[in-house]
Amino acid sequence: MDKEELIAKYLRNELSKSEIIEFEKLLDSDHDFKEQFEFETQVKKAIFKQEHQKNKQFLVDVENEISHKSSNTKWYLVAASVVILISIGFLWNLNSSSPDKLFDSYYTVASNTSHPIVRSNTISDDQTSAFIAYESEAYEQAQILFDEAYKNSNNSELLFYEAICYLEIENTTKAIETFLKHQSLNDRLQEKSKWYLALAYLKNEEPVKAKNLLEKITKSPSNYNYIKAKDLLSKF
Length: 236
Fold this sequence. Notes:
The chain has about 240 residues and is mainly alpha-helical. About 65% of the residues lie in helices and about 0% in strands.
């Protein structure tokens, strides 16, 4: 198999077992192949950082990243890289399917289905206070209240809403941490939490982790947001 196609298939996660063996042997024995593969990893990272720039400017940036390489090899690497990226549709979808843009396209704040609020009622507990703040879009306050309410009640569903609050206040790392904690427990929001964790990975520019979760969601039509997950997967 052509070496560039082998790298392209690796980037698409399409290598067969025999191709994986061939790929690993080349990494160990072929210096040029290893250099090209390492370069592709740099290129993918550069693409996500330069998503709002035109492809021409992107190539200039990439060239600058590898300026330490000899002049005889660096433009070969750029040219080969473009071929590979086009073959996996990466440059074609540069503007429309960056992780952050995909997050913005598919994310909506989760509605409160755990603790319905009757506005006329007097606030009598910390969970009610947390959900009132949540429905009022006071997410910083709600996060603190959910955290306290969870400590007092050990109600795992509260972790889900706390994680949503973290997304809303742009603390993606804590959102992921909290979703993962919620995923380790078993309640009726677990599948919903999986969808939002996938989106959080997108927002955090971890598309591989997001894709892995979305593939799990699409295994069964009964899973939460099955259709949206299939549609989102098609953007990768």
